[in-house]
Predict the structure of ATP-dependent 6-phosphofructokinase.
Amino acid sequence: IKSIGVLTSGGDAPGMNAAIRAVVRTGIYYGIKMFGIRKGYNGLISGDIFEMNARSVSDIVHRGGTILQTARCKEFTTDEGMQKAMSLSRAFGLDALVVIGGDGSYRGARDFSKYGMKVMGLPGTIDNDIASTEYTIGYDTAMNTVQDALDKIRDTAYSHERCSVLEVMGRHAGHIALNVGVAGGAEVILLPEKQFDFDKDIIRRIVQGRNNGKKNYIIILAEGVAEKIGGALELAKKVEDLTGIETRGTVLGYIQRGGSPSIRDRVMASAMGVKAVELLKDGVYNRVMCVEKAKIVDIDIDEALSMTKDIDHEMLRLVEILSI
Ligand code: ATP
């Protein structure tokens, strides 16, 4: 391998910069030419590709977002788009491509490998919804951001004896909602992975809490559920109508995606970035970086994409016990 390109794709996540830095510096360390590709797969199709050196990634390890920018690219899902991307990759002399992104980005990388590109995937998404890994870059920071917001909301819920509904990100996966719910002492956590009964699991729980002397209540609503039953504001109104308890809804939105990455995200991104490039250097490719039993390992990209992941049901049991 003489030259490697790196891009970020899909939704941005804190720690992506730390990953870019690790990939670029490791390549340079081993004498490999490194290229940055802007705006995800779009840059590969439009030729927005530039050579990077060790200094190109100075002062970014602590920054949220991604200096390479990110995007979704429809054209890359077509044969024509892949051909274009491949001919530009050849023109720039790219021997391999490191993709930092979610499952969708992995699918793009896997398909691109069929056109002859050697690929490596790094899990970058706040949702922790990549089946092949226990942990994704950005997840820890996002959870801490949500936790911080929840603590603040709890203060005012306490002061006004209110119920608060907090809508958090997670379209298909409720990992953020579940963890923050446990850590923040939520009474109710609504996850896309788990069916619930409106009356039994929400209303009766809140009323039961009131009967037990509770004065304030937290409901965590994952985005995937909000899309089905209406958002936090709508749910707040329903809860207020049915319980008589003053209820307020908050949608956290994009603040969950930004911010300076936590130490865990920085360390994980750094270690995965180094490993991905060292594997390429050793002639190993078409793999994705994963955390398995708290260790960083690599697995075949096809195998990774065939895996499924569930939420931690034991955590739900904790909520059952701790929210009485
Ligand atoms: P996030 O978890 O933040 O949503 P993601 O990587 O899953 O990240 P997607 O929007 O699903 O985000 O995918 C990012 C990009 O990957 C797409 O815009 C597209 O360019 C490419 N991609 C996704 N699926 C495929 C596919 N089946 N074939 C080729 N390219 C794909």
